[in-house]
Design a protein that fits this description.
6 helices, mainly alpha, 143 residues, 76% helix, elongated
Amino acid sequence: MSTPVPPPRGGTFVLFATALLTGLAGGALCCLLALVIKQDPIWLMLPTAFAIGAFMRWQRFNGAPGAIAAAGAMLICVVYTEYIYAAVRMADMLGFPLRDTLFRVDWKLALQIARANAGVVEAAVLVLAPAIAAAMTARTARG
């Protein structure tokens, strides 16, 4: 008796939507965890990359399209985390409520704050995290 073939996954739109929503959710979770443990969110990016890669595999987006989507989701995650954390830094320095700061922060100012706090480790994680997510998704299952 043959094993049933799983149904095909959605097309390009579903893959794009999954990458977008996964990246945004991962970024928000990463920033929230960084605030709870009072550490820079960069240390949570690599575990998040493993989680995003595993999630994309679990969704059966394997191969090159899945790897590209996982890398894109991780890039969205990194950018979104840095944006939120820049707003947190600004709200903390100026004494404003975080909710107001999130809605009023300019992306150019957030980019300057992120650049001012960036270093070699952040650059390495920016390159390594999408590669880890893509590698986790692209590897073939052993059976």
